[in-house]
């Protein structure tokens, strides 16, 4: 099968073009470090051609771990005889920066006899500002085809397909060797000259970006807008998702009422009511919040604000041994810790990368979101204040998210001051991408895919755990007495560990199973309460918890425990692989568990004093 390589600098629209050409839903974002692995897909128009998308890099002289991945795979691909073409994507609004990297790519492709096609993206931005790019003259100067296009609108993409189709079955003539022996120093000067001769004239784009940066990066308005945006992000998790959550709960409740009575076999009826609707159904209620969270973060990423937030956070993060580039992986960890860990490859400094690894598991990931939502809905009033602008539950969600982030900063700050520095730190350099209006369709599609992936990935684990928990809780007495079931015996073994937090054996079992995936906590409790409650209230788990006389202090202790304790087994495995240190991950797992338990115990005792 013929292979085509897609390579380009960060923020050039490479992932968006990859999605358009292949139809795959690879994540697209407008800040450096989002594409952290190699994507592979077949072209929709040419199914027998495989397109390979490498991580973005500014040059073929790698600095960060992410750039090293791109350069290593690119050099290996040039040795592959199946690679027929190299597509080098450039940002036509920032031509000089893009052309330096392009010239390096052309030079290396000439050395290996590979054909290159330069794709000048963002042509729609130039058109909207009445600017032009002389693609024909640039093509003649580079001795390489230069095709203008817009990955966002699709303009010019058909021309790329036609060019690739023309080259199929044609003997590949070696490209002109006009850059083979050119050093990088001369290439930089050549890029400057080419951009000046053929690039867009005028500073309209720079002035537009500068005007917005005066507000978002101002010492006063920038800080206020940052905290306001972050608050709205977490407040929206409750307010925007609430109608969808109510709808899902209503549908599941009606489905349970309709399906369960139709099942004649007692064992099958109990399994459907307790395990399926009680366990898995209780988890599905919280999926709309995953959708909303992903959508809002996508807005921040695609608009270009995320890089500004990283710049704003650089100075305070330095106090905790981190860098502004740590903000991007840490906020990515709010969606899921695993892509956040991968995104940390973009951090140049090895020491700061390791410190970021330590902070990411304390970020409140979306797997914790159902747990937070369940406990907040059970113990925090649903009223509002300030004329309905601030909801108590949304404020509690913001508080627990902020608490997790604060704990991550405190840990890295302590470690950075007590451990020896074996690395030489690199200076903080961050590209500020241009502000762009996010596309609604890609954002909705990405949020939908994220929610679907969350359900399908966690669903298999939740189903397996739910069946296992139901089996242990149903036998040997067929659900008549949960306390004397096999699950009850297991729960009473672990109960002394969690009893000081005011938690009985049911919550102890749910905490243990949550190590497989945090959201399993909700499914496990749903199954346990489903067995206890028979056919009553199979889905509304909040009502079960509220009627169980669980103390408010225990609920708050659970929130704190989940905010600090290390995440699921998948996170542990990825951390060990990326950090290349099993001992570090073992110390983190034990240390965070003890930290979480001590903090939860303190919160429980304080709540008891105030109550």
Summarize the structure.
This protein has 611 residues and is α/β, with parallel strands linked by helices. The protein has 26 helices and 8 strands.
Question: How many distinct helices?
Answer: 26
- Going by CATH, the architecture of the domain at 2-202 would be 3-Layer(aba) Sandwich
Mean pLDDT figure: 80
Instruction: Identify the CATH class of the domain at 2-202.
Output: Alpha Beta
Name the strands of the widest sheet in spatial order.
2-3-1-4-5-6
- Ends distance: 69 Å
**What's the story with the biggest beta sheet?**
6 strands, mixed
Main traits of this protein?
26 helices; elongated; two-stranded antiparallel sheet; alpha/beta; 6-stranded mixed β-sheet; 611 residues
Structure description:
It is a single chain. The chain has 611 residues and is an alpha/beta fold. It has a domain at 2-202: 3-Layer(aba) Sandwich (Rossmann fold), CATH 3.40.50. 62% of the residues lie in helices and 6% in strands. Strand 7 and strand 8 (390-391) form a beta hairpin. The longest helix has 35 residues, at 440-474.
């Amino acid at each position: 099968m013929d292979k085509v390589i897609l390579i380009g600098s960060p923020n050039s629209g490479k992932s968006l073009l990859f999605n358009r050409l292949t139809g795959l839903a690879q994540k697209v974002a407008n800040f450096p470090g989002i594409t952290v692995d190699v994507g592979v897909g077949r072209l929709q128009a040419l199914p027998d051609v495989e397109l390979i998308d490498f991580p973005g890099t500014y040059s073929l002289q790698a600095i960060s771990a992410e750039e090293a991945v791109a350069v290593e795979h690119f050099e290996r691909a040039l040795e592959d005889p199946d690679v027929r073409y190299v597509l080098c994507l450039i940002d036509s609004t920032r031509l000089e920066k893009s052309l330096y990297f392009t010239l390096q790519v052309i030079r290396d492709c000439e050395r290996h006899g590979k054909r290159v096609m330069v794709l000048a993206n963002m042509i729609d931005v130039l058109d909207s500002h009445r600017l032009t790019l002389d693609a024909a003259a640039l093509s003649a100067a580079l001795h390489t085809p230069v095709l203008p296009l817009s990955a966002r609108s699709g303009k010019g993409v058909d021309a790329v397909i036609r060019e690739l189709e023309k080259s199929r079955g044609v003997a590949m003539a070696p490209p002109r060797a006009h850059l083979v022996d050119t050093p990088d120093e001369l290439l930089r000067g050549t890029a400057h000259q080419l951009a000046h001769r053929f690039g867009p004239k005028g500073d309209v784009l720079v002035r537009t970006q500068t005007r917005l940066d005066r507000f978002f990066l101002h010492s006063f308005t920038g800080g206020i807008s940052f905290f306001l945006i972050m608050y709205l992000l977490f407040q929206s998790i409750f307010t925007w998702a609430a109608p969808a959550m109510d709808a899902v709960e209503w549908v599941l409740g009606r489905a349970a009422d309709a399906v369960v009575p139709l099942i004649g076999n007692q064992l099958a009826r109990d399994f459907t009511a307790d395990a399926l609707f009680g366990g898995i159904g209780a988890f599905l209620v919280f999926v709309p919040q995953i959708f909303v969270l992903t959508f809002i973060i996508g807005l921040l990423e695609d608009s270009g604000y995320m890089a500004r937030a990283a710049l704003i956070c650089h100075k305070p993060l330095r106090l905790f041994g981190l860098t502004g580039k740590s903000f991007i992986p840490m906020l990515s960890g709010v969606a899921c810790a695993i892509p956040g860990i991968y995104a940390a490859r973009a951090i140049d400094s090895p020491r700061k990368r390791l410190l970021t690894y330590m902070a990411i598991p304390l970020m409140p990931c979306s797997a914790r979101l159902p747990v937070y939502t369940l406990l907040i809905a059970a113990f925090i009033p649903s009223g509002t204040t300030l004329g309905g602008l601030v909801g108590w539950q949304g404020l509690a969600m913001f508080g627990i998210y902020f608490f997790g982030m604060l704990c991550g900063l405190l840990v890295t700050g302590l470690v950075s001051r007590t451990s020896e520095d074996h690395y030489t730190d690199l200076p903080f350099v961050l590209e500020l991408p241009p502000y762009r209006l996010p596309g609604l369709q890609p954002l909705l599609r990405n949020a939908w895919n994220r929610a679907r992936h969350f359900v399908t990935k966690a669903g298999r684990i939740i189903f397996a755990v739910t069946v296992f928990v139901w089996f242990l809780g149903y036998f040997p007495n067929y659900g008549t007495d949960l306390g004397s079931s096999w699950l009850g015996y297991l729960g009473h073994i672990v109960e002394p560990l969690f009893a000081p937090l005011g938690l009985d054996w049911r919550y102890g079992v749910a905490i243990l199973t949550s190590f497989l995936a945090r959201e399993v906590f909700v499914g496990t409790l749903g199954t346990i309460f489903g067995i206890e409650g028979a056919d009553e209230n199979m889905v509304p788990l909040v009502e079960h918890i509220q009627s169980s006389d669980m103390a408010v202090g225990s609920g708050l202790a659970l929130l704190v425990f989940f905010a600090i304790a290390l995440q699921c087994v998948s996170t542990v495995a990825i951390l060990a692989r990326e950090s290349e240190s099993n001992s570090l991950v073992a110390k983190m797992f034990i240390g965070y568990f003890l930290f979480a338990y001590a903090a939860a115990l303190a919160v429980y005792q304080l709540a008891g004093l105030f109550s």
